[in-house]
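tool_call: predict_structure(chain=1)
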Amino acid sequence: MRIAMVGSGYVGLVSGACLAQFGHDVTCIDKVADKVAQLRKGKIPIYEPGLDKLVGDNMRAGRLTFDTNLAEAVGNADAVFIAVGTPTRRGEGHADLTYVRSAAAEIAEALRGYTVVAIKSTVPVGTGREVSRIIREARPEAEFDVVANPEFLREGAAIEDFMKPDRVIIGVETKRAHDVMAAVYRPLNLIQTPMVFTNIETAEVTKYAGNAFLATKITFINEIADLCEKVGADVHDVARGIGLDGRIGRKFLHPGPGFGGSCFPKDTLALTYTAQQANAPQTIVEQVIVVNDARKKRMAQKVIEFCDGSVAGLTVGVLGLTFKPNTDDMRDAPSLDIVSALEAAGAQIVAFDPEGMKEAARLMPSVTFAESAYDAVSGADVLVVITEWPEFRGLDPRRLMQLMRRPRIVDLRNIFNPDELRSLGFAYEGVGRRRVLAPSVINKLLGNNSKISAQDPEILSSSSRVSGPA
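tool_result:
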């Protein structure tokens, strides 16, 4: 099939390359001439593992091309995908559909013959109808159908997510459009990928509902981690214990400094805005947003408290700046709030991230950027892990001990073994990790009539299992 991908950003580029890998002839369109020129040379503007090879292979095979000429690509296409940005509109949380509407107007003028217009951008409910209206008003005689086909790509694993997805959601309302979309995704049918064909509004809600639910799971386990710290439990064992329940599942139960990125913050806001407009408020998701925003700021305070209440004049080594590993995306990354708060408290920040430092340098002009993880911790008074890049898990604790001015680690992703570090002499603080509770704390938890003492064998046994500062 002949496919035009309008928008060559993250979603458009990954989707276009993967559709070309399926065997379709794909043209990715972008208005930025320099970007198109670089893509034609095989230079990828984003970091996504395996994307450079996938693009190069399909360009050489003649299945993937890049152009600024929307009219020609759309006029020759069987299916046109809209994959432009939908940023949060300033001041209100609603998705800005400026680029979607503009794309729809240009597509309308270029249509020749029956064409399916598929919206892959993340858009609020009603956008499919709006796009259809724009095209119909501009070209009453045009033969087309608009469908909703939301993406579910995880940055860092986007190619696998497209090629081997959990499901494909398609909002479609005519058999003709159904057959075109079935042909687009035929290679996935061959591997028995679940295809959910529904109406346009349902597909639009499904995208937002999925991301909101995952954001809720993250926020839930983060609050449970806070409880674990207060009562002497370990959040990892709790997460495993509840995750083994098939109704809950294991994924997205990893405690940390809060969610960020291009999807969860934007999509939760857009969902709550749409729900308010529809008089169906999503109070759980609204609270998730509030708790997550507060958590990012709370993590900076966690570091300050660990450093005896002040980081003024201290050198803080930071590992990881992007919102998650295997991406260079800094959008709404927890590091932005954490680093800013530590700097405001008087700390000097030396940071390292395998892929995100170019963008971070623009957003964090006063941060010193190191050439490696070990360089970032050299001479540091405390090390703070913000993003769990795989290479950080292999760092040698003994070498860290030699390089640091003071052996203190605040591990916001729990990538290190607390017992090992404490046995080497590190002061260690994780997220939701087991602590030894003072008898007074236990008595408070059990009620005023409890009289557990420091000589209680359970307390002594617990103390012997965990060494180092709490």
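agent: The two ends are 61 Å apart (CA to CA). Proceeding to next step.
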